[in-house]
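Quick look at the format.
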Amino acid sequence: MKNDFLNDSPELNITPLVDVMLVLVVILMLIVPNVKYDENINLPDGSKSSQSTAKKDDMRISVKKDYVIFNNKKYTHIEFGDNFNLEKSNFDTEKVVFIAGDKDISYDLLMQVLTIVKKAGFLKISLQTK
């Protein structure tokens, strides 16, 4: 007489494991889009004095809604990066770069100009206010 109990391979029931994993996936799908990272930044007010710390030989960049002014020349936002990299050798990277942004421009546009200036090797950058 053979014992069939010893010859059968054990079966693993994974249905409860799958159920638990699906519930966890649904919970994560509901929670993750609602998680927001907020950084509270206290920005300083602009200087109240009418005197500017900029000197005549300092580099000045003005960001307007439709163009960027650099060295009294107008460039579109797309042209500015290439032209700035071409002319950066004419300036000392240790001097301060003054960037003034129009109030009608987007924050993203100002940050693009700031990134171009930083990648060119200028580390002393001042954002001008009114």
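Next, a different chain entirely:
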Amino acid sequence: MKLTYIMTLVLLGLVSCPTRVSAKLAQSINRPQVNIRSQSQRPKFPDNGAPTGRRKGGTSRDGCTPLNTPITALVPGEEIADESKSFLTFTISEYPTFWVYVPELPKNAVFGEFILQDENDKNIYKTSISLPRKASILGIKLPHNSQSALKINKNYQWYFKVFCGNPQRMSEYFYVKAWIQRLPLNSDLESQLKRTQSREYATYAFNQIWQDALTNLATLRRSNPNSRLFTKDWTLLLKDIGLAELATAPIVELKSDEKAITESK
């Protein structure tokens, strides 16, 4: 069975049911079901209201000139007009990579900022970013230190901001916002990953671990730019969450900024 066909079946559930894969689907691709997250085990958020998110860039003030194409967080979710929807993804990585699409920007918009917070709005990691001049998909990886490491079964929110140009007016920026939770690596998932070392993204996608599926496939696509298989699967992965139009953008993975601000919990 071709991988692209498997991926089509695997990815069908990402938007409509992002927290589990049906038993029927598991049987259809002849693989064991790994019940990472059942309906009754969906993550609980703080009591201060439902968690909010924004997949496509809004503005903090009216001083920002509208962009032709919005900044976009590469996360599953439905498009809405306000911030009443939570864009939550899962990872098994202690130091995951966060992905955003940045369109071609005005000449005066040259820097951005990434912020990771715990569910109580306390900064865990914060870094400034020099933005590319061409439209790109950016991967922002957490630095390997104890302050920024994600704890298992904890909820974190992250922001990506692009400032509108005037460094004296830091309150004016475009931004996206989403949530992430780290899951434990169980023995079933570990066994599956060992069997699919050359294409771990298929296993991650099957188990609804979106963040790691995206990161693994993005890395493979960057390392193998002429691979028709990885190019097709990258397009399929983004198409399944309604972002197929971004699939041709170049992928840039940013190294952790040594000057980044890290704060302990």
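The first strand starts at residue 54 and ends at 59.

See the schema section for token definitions.
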